[in-house]
Write a structure and sequence with these properties.
The structure holds 2 protein chains of 2 kinds.
Chain A lengths: L1 H27 L9 H7 L6 H32 L3 H27 L9 H29 L4
Chain B lengths: L2 H25 L4 E4 L4 E4 L21 H21 L5 H27 L2
Antiparallel strand pairs in B: 1-2
Classes of the chains: A mainly alpha, B mainly alpha.
Chain lengths: ~150, ~120
């Protein structure tokens, strides 16, 4: 059960990382990028279209992570402590903190990207998108490393 | 609530949630503590302590994370509602707070995690 949930959590995270990275680059890429360049093509898409998907994927991913965390706490953390993986546990602590803070800003992020886009919220929109992208990348990488340390199906 | 009040609510909620989460994390203010191995939920912060044999502490690991989130959410809800009721001219303040406070709270969490890296 835990392994199935973990795989599902990973798959949702992959979809989320793709969407948030796309939107972040589209938001922060230079406006004067040429149309046929990498950033130019990113700019060509309507980045607001990712918002609902990002919110839903973030919520599902956080929920699955919160469930998997129960198994981790009982089955995996004692082993990590026994093997003195203190840095990994520290990074995981940060992952849970960052993800929680991301949950808190999610409604504001969604409001900022609501159509029609309000120019008054441009700064908050760009900053929150970058913040969420950082959180998602951090959570993804730390989760990946912890899973590697624990081993598949551990 | 008007759209502007909605905006103020979500902006204030986001900023306050991050702030309260960092405070809950620093002060150990979990609304409830979960013992996943036993399937027990206790109101407030409770640390598992096996006085007879501290080595067996891992048998009853406690989880505060869900409790910290609940504490932060309640505090943020109150601040959000207050912000929605306050005059609209404070909109700019919440619009700044929502993206300035969370990174500061994240930095505080990094600071609180330092002990792991000193072991």
């Amino acid at each position: 059960m835990a392994t199935t949930l973990l795989i599902l959590h990973g798959l949702v995270a992959v979809a989320l990382i793709g969407a948030i990275t796309h939107q972040t680059l589209a938001t922060w890429a230079p406006l004067k990028a040429k149309p046929n360049t990498f950033f130019g093509r990113f700019r060509a898409i309507e980045s607001a279209g990712f918002t609902n998907a990002i919110v839903v994927l973030y919520l599902i991913s956080a929920l699955l992570g919160a469930v998997v965390y129960l198994y981790f706490k009982i089955d995996l953390q004692p082993n990590l402590e026994r093997d003195r993986h203190w840095h990994a546990l520290g990074f995981l602590d940060l992952k849970e903190d960052f993800v929680a803070i991301g949950l808190g800003v999610l409604p504001a992020y969604w409001f900022c990207w609501r159509r029609p886009l309000n120019s008054q919220n441009h700064q908050a929109r760009a900053a929150l998108t970058l913040l969420l992208a950082f959180i998602v990348w951090w959570a993804f990488l730390v989760g990946h490393v912890i899973n590697n340390i624990g081993g598949f199906g551990a | 609530m008007s759209t502007s009040a909605h905006h103020r609510f979500v902006f204030a909620f986001g900023a306050a949630f991050a702030l309260f989460y960092a405070i809950a994390r620093a002060r150990g203010l979990a609304l409830f503590t979960l013992y996943p191995a036993q399937g027990i939920v206790l109101l407030g912060t409770h640390r598992s302590r096996d006085v007879a044999d501290p080595v067996l502490d891992f048998l009853a690991p406690e989880m505060f994370w869900y409790g910290w989130i609940a504490s932060a959410a309640i505090g943020a809800l109150v601040v959000g509602l207050l912000a929605a009721l306050l005059p609209g001219r404070l909109y700019w303040f919440w619009a700044w707070c929502v993206w300035l406070v969370p990174p500061m709270a994240m930095s505080a969490c990094v600071y609180l995690t330092i002990p792991w890296f000193r072991l």
